[in-house]
UniProtKB/TrEMBL annotation:
Organism per entry: Amniculicola lignicola CBS 123094
Name this polypeptide is given: GMC oxidoreductase
Native organism taxonomy: Eukaryota, Fungi, Dikarya, Ascomycota, Pezizomycotina
Cofactor: FAD
Chain residue ranges for the region called Disordered: 185-205
Domain Glucose-methanol-choline oxidoreductase N-terminal: 321-335
Active site: H546 (proton donor), H590 (proton acceptor)
Length: 610
C-alpha cells in the first residue's frame, strides 16, 4: 500500500545495509565492493543491466529478479522522489506544483527540465517538457490518469508489428497482471458521482499497481456528464475493458484508502528491495552502451562523475524513456548515419528511425464562471489546512484529486470538419476516438479571484503531426534537441478547431444551464471564426506529455522500425528497448497502462527465452 513515507524511514533504508545500496550481485568482475562504506559494487557483472528505473524499467527489474535465478542491475539518474521532492510528488493535487511552462518552480531532482525547440503549436515558444527523473520515472511525475486503449488500436498494433500477441484478447492479460482494481468508495463520494462497479475490474485482482477512483470529485463533473451524454457520448461501464467511445468515471493510480500516488517505484521496486539479486544504482547516469561487435555487452555509467562500467551477461535493456532512449542509442552508435557522423560517433548501425516519429497529444480548454464550488476549494489558508486534515485523516477532500476528471471520448462529429479531414481521421479503427474530454477546475492564464471557474479541456487523440529528437553532442549530459511539432499538420489544426467548438457545445449545453454563469470567460468574446479559434489554440495549447514512438517497434521490412515485436534492436544482439520509445504508435489516450502492460509482456518473453 502506498503511504506517505516519512523521509526518515527512507533515509534509514538507504543508510542501513539495504538491498538498494548494498546487496552484492551474484558475481563481481573487477574489484569487488568499491565505494566501501555503502558497499556499491562498481565494475560488476549482472545477467541483466536495465537503463532507467522508470515506469517500464522497474516492472522489468521486479519480474526479472523475482525467481532469484538472475542478477539484475538498474541504473537510474534520479533517486527516491519521497526524499527529493517530499510529499509534493505523492499528493495528487500537488502535481500542479512545479508543473509550469517555465522552469522557476520545477524541481530538477525529479524532472529532467527538458526545453523544446520553439514550438509552432505553442505560438513559437520553447516549452518545458516534463519527464520524471526519479525512481518510477514519469509514473512518479504524471497525473495518474489510468485507462486502457481500445481493442481496435491493439489489433492495429498487432498487424503493424506482425505479432498477434498484441491483440486485446491476449495483451489484456498483462494490463490485468500489472494492476489491482478497487471499487469506488460510496461512503466518500456522493451517490450521484459514485460509479457502478465496472465488471472488467474483477479481472485485475492482484497486480502491483492500485487503480482506484478518487475519494473526491470536482462537483461540476456530474453536470458535464449529463451534457456529454445528451451530446451523444453514451455512458459505458468504464475505460479499462478495451472500449473508450462514450462517457464514464475515470480511475487513477492511487492507493484507494490513503489516495497517495502509486508509481512503478511504490508498486514494483519497494516490494523487491530486499532481494539480494537486485541492485539499484540510483543517482547514476548510463553514459554509453558498450558493444563487442554488434553484441551489447554492458553499460558505461557515472555516479556524480565517478565512472564505472557494468557488464551484462545476458542482455542490456534500455528503458530510459522516449527522449533518453534514442539519445543514448545515438551516442552509442545506433541511429541515423548523418547524425552520428556529424558528432564523430562511429556508426555501429545506421538506423534512420531512431529519434523520428514523436507522437503526442495536444490539449486546449475553454473556461466559464460557474455556480458550484470549483476553483475556490483551496483559496485560503484555512481551507488548505482543512484539506490537509481531510486528506491525512480520511483520505478524501480536494487534495485527493488532481482537480479534474477524464469524462468522455468521441469521434468528432463529421459536420465540424471538412470531408478531407474526415477521410484522414477515418484511417484509424472504428473504436478509436478523435477527441477526449476532461473537466478542469480552472485554466492556466486565469488570475484567481473569489468566483468559481471550471471548464472542459479537449485532447486530440488521433493526430498526424510528428516530432523528432536528436543529439546536440556525443555526451549524455547535453540535453537532446526535442521538436514535438504538435499542431503542425493541417488535419490536427482542423481537429483542434472542431474539438474546441465541441468543448464549447458541452459547456453551453442546456444541461449545464443551472451551473454556468454568463458567457464564456476564456477565450471569450472575440474568438468565433476558425482563424480566431486557431490563433487561440496556438497561443493556449499544450501537449499532455505523452511523447513516444522514437525507437518504434515494427516489421523488419519497415526501414523506420528500430525494434522487433520483442523489443530487440534490429541488427544488434542482446539489446532490447522496453519503454514508451519502443511502441509502434500511440494508442488513444493516456499511455501509462500500455507501458506497464508492455513491460509485463516483454518480461514474460525474456524469462521465456525470447
Ligand atoms: C507531467 C506528465 C503527466 C502525465 N500524465 C499521464 C497520465 O495522467 N496518465 C498516463 O497514462 N500517462 C501520463 N503521462 C505519460 C506517462 O507517464 C509516460 O508515458 C510513461 O510513464 C513513460 O514510461 P517510460 O518507462 O517510457 O519512461 P519513464 O517512466 O519516464 O522512465 C524513464 C526513466 O529513465 C531514466 N533515465 C533516462 N535517461 C537515463 C540515463 N542516461 N541514465 C539513467 N537513467 C536514465 C529517467 O530518469 C526515468 O526514471 C504523463 C507524463 C508526464 C511527464
Ligand atoms: C508534507 O511534508 C512537509 C515536510 O516536507 C510537512 O511539513 C507537511 O506537513 C506534509 N504535508 C502533508 C499533507 O503530509
Ligand atoms: C567478443 O566476441 C567474440 C566473438 O564472440 C569473442 O570471441 C570475444 O571473446 C569477445 N570479446 C570480449 C572482450 O568479450
Ligand atoms: C572500473 O574499471 C575501469 C577500467 O578498469 C577503471 O578505470 C575504473 O576506475 C573502475 N571504476 C571503479 C569505480 O572502480
Ligand atoms: C462531403 O461528404 C458528404 C457525405 O459523403 C457529401 O454529401 C458532401 O457533398 C461532401 N461535401 C463536399 C464539399 O465534398
Ligand atoms: C461579450 O460581449 C457581449 C456583447 O458585447 C457582452 O454583453 C458580454 O458581457 C461579453 N462577455 C464577456 C465575458 O466579456
Amino acid at each position: 500500500m502506498a503511504r506517505l513515507t516519512s523521509i526518515l524511514s527512507l533515509v534509514l533504508a538507504l543508510a542501513s545495509p539495504s538491498p538498494t545500496a548494498a546487496a552484492p550481485p551474484d558475481s563481481i568482475s573487477g574489484q569487488p565492493l568499491l565505494g566501501s562504506s555503502f558497499g556499491i559494487p562498481f565494475n560488476a557483472t549482472y545477467d541483466y543491466v536495465i537503463i532507467g528505473g522508470g515506469t517500464a524499467g522497474l516492472v522489468l527489474a521486479n519480474r526479472l529478479s523475482a525467481s532469484g535465478a538472475h542478477s539484475v542491475a538498474v541504473l537510474e539518474a534520479g533517486s527516491f522522489y519521497e526524499i527529493s521532492n517530499s510529499n509534493q510528488s505523492q499528493i495528487p493535487r500537488w502535481v500542479w506544483n512545479g508543473a509550469g511552462l517555465g522552469f522557476g518552480d520545477v524541481n530538477p531532482l525529479v524532472d529532467w527540465e527538458i526545453e523544446t525547440e520553439p514550438e509552432e503549436g505553442s505560438g513559437g515558444a520553447r516549452i518545458h517538457y516534463p519527464r520524471g527523473r526519479t525512481l518510477g520515472g514519469s509514473s512518479s511525475r504524471n497525473h495518474m490518469v489510468y485507462h486502457r486503449g481500445t481493442k481496435g488500436s491493439y489489433k492495429k498494433w498487432a498487424d503493424e508489428v506482425g505479432d498477434k500477441g498484441y491483440e486485446w484478447d491476449k495483451f489484456k492479460a498483462y494490463f490485468e497482471k500489472s494492476t489491482t482494481f478497487n471499487k469506488a468508495d460510496g461512503s466518500k463520494r456522493l451517490a450521484n458521482s459514485t460509479p457502478a462497479e465496472d465488471p472488467a475490474g474483477a479481472r485485475s485482482k492482484d497486480g502491483p499497481v492500485s487503480i482506484s477512483y478518487t475519494n473526491w470529485v470536482l462537483p461540476i463533473t456530474s453536470w458535464v456528464l449529463k451534457a456529454t451524454e445528451a451530446l451523444g457520448m453514451k455512458p459505458i461501464p468504464g475505460f479499462i475493458d478495451g472500449d473508450l467511445i462514450g462517457s464514464s468515471w475515470n480511475m487513477r493510480t492511487t492507493d484507494p484508502k490513503t489516495q497517495v500516488r502509486d508509481s512503478a517505484e511504490t508498486a514494483y521496486l519497494r516490494p523487491a528491495l530486499k532481494r539480494r539479486n537486485l541492485i539499484v544504482y540510483h543517482t547514476t547516469y548510463a553514459t554509453k552502451i558498450l558493444f563487442n561487435g554488434t553484441e551489447a555487452v554492458g553499460v558505461r555509467a557515472s555516479t556524480l562523475g565517478k565512472a564505472f562500467a557494468l557488464t551484462a551477461r545476458k542482455e542490456v535493456i534500455l528503458s530510459a524513456g522516449a527522449i533518453h532512449s534514442p539519445q543514448l542509442l545515438m551516442i552509442s552508435g545506433i541511429g541515423p548515419k548523418a547524425t552520428l557522423d556529424k558528432y564523430g560517433i562511429s556508426v555501429l548501425k545506421d538506423a534512420p528511425g531512431v529519434g523520428q516519429g514523436i507522437e503526442d497529444h495536444p490539449a486546449i480548454g475553454v473556461t466559464y464562471k460557474v455556480r458550484v464550488k470549483s476553483s475556490t476549494f483551496l483559496d485560503t489558508p484555512a481551507k488548505n489546512e482543512e484539506a490537509v486534515r481531510e486528506y491525512l485523516e480520511e483520505g478524501t477532500g480536494p487534495l485527493s484529486s488532481t482537480g479534474g476528471e477524464l469524462v468522455a471520448w468521441e469521434k468528432v462529429p463529421r459536420r465540424l470538419v471538412s470531408n478531407k479531414t474526415a477521410a484522414a481521421l477515418d484511417v484509424v479503427p472504428k473504436d478509436w476516438p478523435d477527441l477526449e474530454f476532461l473537466v478542469t477546475s480552472s485554466y492556466p492564464g486565469l488570475a484567481p479571484d473569489k468566483d468559481d471557474y471550471a471548464g472542459v479541456t479537449v485532447v486530440l487523440v488521433n493526430t498526424f503531426s510528428r516530432g523528432t529528437v536528436t543529439i546536440a553532442s556525443s555526451s549524455i549530459f547535453d540535453q537532446a534537441i526535442v521538436h514535438i511539432n504538435f499542431l503542425t499538420h493541417p488535419v490536427d489544426q482542423e481537429l483542434a478547431i472542431a474539438g474546441f467548438k465541441r468543448a464549447r457545445e458541452i459547456m453551453t449545453h442546456k444541461s449545464m444551464a443551472a451551473v454556468v454563469v454568463g458567457d464564456e470567460v476564456l477565450p471569450g468574446n472575440g474568438t468565433f471564426t476558425d482563424a480566431q479559434i486557431l490563433k487561440y489554440v496556438k497561443a493556449g495549447s499544450r501537449t499532455i506529455s505523452h511523447v513516444s514512438c522514437t525507437c518504434k517497434m515494427g516489421k523488419k521490412s519497415d526501414p523506420l522500425a528500430v525494434v522487433d515485436s520483442e523489443g530487440r534492436v534490429f541488427g544488434i544482439q542482446k539489446l532490447r528497448i522496453v519503454d514508451a520509445s519502443g511502441i509502434p504508435f500511440l494508442p488513444p489516450g493516456h499511455p501509462m497502462s500500455t507501458i506497464y502492460a508492455l513491460a509485463e509482456k516483454l518480461a514474460d518473453r525474456i524469462l521465456g527465452g525470447k
